[in-house]
Amino acid sequence: MHGALQLRNRHCGYDFSFDGGKTWADQIPPFYQFIGKDGHTFDACSDPTATFDNGGNAYVGGVLFDITSVASAFVVAKSNSPLGGSFFHTPAALSFQTYRDTPLGVVASDNDPDVFNDKEFIVADAGSSSPKKNNVYATWTRFANTGVGVGGHSPIYFSQSTNGGATWSTGTEISGANSAFCTAFSGEINPNACDQNQGSDPIVGPDGTIYVSFFNGNTPILGLNQHLMVKCPGSADCTNPANWTAPVQIVTDVGVQPIGPNATTGCPGGRQCLPPNGYRIDDATFGSLSVDNNSTLYHVFSDIRNGVGGTCTFFVATPAPPCDQDVFYSFSKDGGATWSALFQLTPPASAQWMPWGAVVPNGSKLYVAYYDRAYGNCEFTGCNDITVATICNPASASPSVTYTRVTTSSMPNLVVANNPLEAGFLGDYMWVAVGNLGRANVVWADTRGLNNSVEEDIYFAAVP
Fold first, then answer.
1. In this structure, what are the phi and psi dihedrals at residue 379, rounded to the nearest 5 degrees?
2. Hey, where are the domains in the chain?
3. How much is the pLDDT for 2?
4. CA distance 178 to 453
5. Cα separation of 116 and 63, whole Å?
6. Collapsing DSSP states into helix, strand and coil, what is residue 64?
7. Of 257, 317, 356, 415, which alpha carbon lies 20 to 30 A from 331's?
8. Burial of 217 per CB tally in 10 Å (0-12, 13-18, 19+)
């Protein structure tokens, strides 16, 4: 889960299980011995990310930042295959490697008031027949002041490691430009730069092609944004930005949810939330991309297009439920050049948000998990559940969908009155992964707490 700036000195932790998720252990990786370019160790970590390569080696990454200085970094640690993710160490191939914390793999490190690294993901090429098997890739958002156009931008950057995470290529901008889709608010010399981005999601196809989807705001209409995708072939040098395609639009995004602050719900100022929750509803981090062994792509996201004209948008003086935020998916059979019509997965007159998707390797099923207020009276009280939609034949004209309520009881709403520290934030994304058994492994932030407490904890469920 995303560790927000609102909680100081938050560290990234990683859990592991060797019995299918029945029991778990946890650890804090050796990120906090890393010395940034400001000459000291970092205060906090955000956006933990993990991946496995074809040999069973695990990698974890995180964005490091300071509370009172401008330094930020993106670092990676490794867990060799015999360890299974139970302990992380330096990625460098040194003697006694597993006993060494440093050096870490450094994707990015800055000490510049005009630069901040954010919202990173890593993914390894785990394909058995890929020409780049076991490469590890990183994408992230690089916020920077430019003094050009609107004065600043947030392009998607890319870096790769070809030696097990030990060293990383110089970061390069891959979000590109497109005069058909990116027509406003450029912070670069090119007025059609697609450079106002967040929420990149990298995946690797069976032939080594790297696909990256991301949320983009280079659009002229307030609240009408878009999800874009770029790719680099498995046969190309992806450290060269010329080998990445121009961005293609997957879908438009209607993001007119009510804007905070709200002193009662805890919705932060400038953030968008769906009353009566104060939880951030950030379409910018809700786009999820997956690919099957036939190289068919699947994109999952949520927005409030069906709620426009209702009582729950920022055009309404006093927003109130029902909030018709819905979850959708589409697919592409031509490498992302064109996309199918949207399939709506969720019912009307209630809120579903923060989805994530994963497809089984043969493409027969797509799992989509999301937060859901359709149970009981949750739409009006603010309690939540987790639902998993299982879509059979998802790349057909007539897919079939079944639904599983994962939570055994609804999560209580966190508001300022019962938890002033955590009210207003339930994470920026959840996660779904497909295991060897073909089931959906779902991870989310849950407010049911332990010992009758009202707090946020990380939960896991396997959906067969």
1. -60, -30
2. 1-250, 255-464
3. 33
4. 50
5. 10
6. strand
7. 257
8. buried
Q: Model pTM greater than 0.85?
A: yes
3-state secondary structure (DSSP) of residue 399: coil
Terminus-to-terminus CA distance in the chain, angstroms? 23
Two structure tokens written together for 405: 């309520």
Token couple for 214: 């991301």
Cα angle for residues 49, 50, 55 (degrees, 5° grid): 160
Burial group, residue 67, by CB count within 10 angstroms (0-12, 13-18, 19+): exposed
Dihedral over Cα of 196, 202, 205, 208: its sign: positive
Residues 6+ apart with CB under 8 A from 6: 268, 424, 425
What are the pLDDT digits (tens) for 335-358? 999 999 999 999 999 999 999 999
Cα radius of gyration (the chain)? 21
Query: What DSSP character marks residue 103?
Result: S
Tokens 């097990």, residue located: 164
Per residue, the 3-state secondary structure of 348-390, as one string, reads CCCCEEEEEEEECCCCCEEEEEEEECCCCCHHHHCCEEEEEEE
Span 282-306, average pLDDT: 95
* Main-chain phi, psi angles of 370, to 5 degrees: -160, 160
Q: What angle do CA 311, 316, 319 make, to 5 degrees?
A: 55
User: CB–CB of 387/406 below 8 Å?
Assistant: yes
How far apart (Å, rounded) are the C-alpha atoms in residues 304 and 224? 11
Give residue-wise pLDDT tens across range 177-222: 999 999 999 999 999 999 999 999 999 999 999 999 999 999 999 9
Q: Which two tokens stand for residue 40?
A: 């000291």
Of 63, 39, 52, nearest in space to 120 by CA: 63
What are the Cα distances from residue 373, in Å, to 309, 404, 406? 20, 14, 13
Is the pLDDT score of 6 beyond 50?
Answer: no
Strands, sheet with 431-434, edge to edge from the N-terminal-most edge strand: 431-434, 440-446, 457-463
> Coil, strand or helix: which one is 140?
strand
CA 365 to chain centre: 21
- Residues 144, 149, 154: CA angle, nearest 5 degrees: 30
Answer whether the bond into residue 319 is a cis peptide, omega within 30°: no
Cβ atoms within 10 Å, residue 189: 9
Answer yes or no: are the C-beta atoms of 109 and 152 closer than 8 Å: no
The verdict on domain 1-250 having CATH code 3.10.450 is: no
Q: What are phi and psi of 74, to 5 degrees?
A: -130, 115
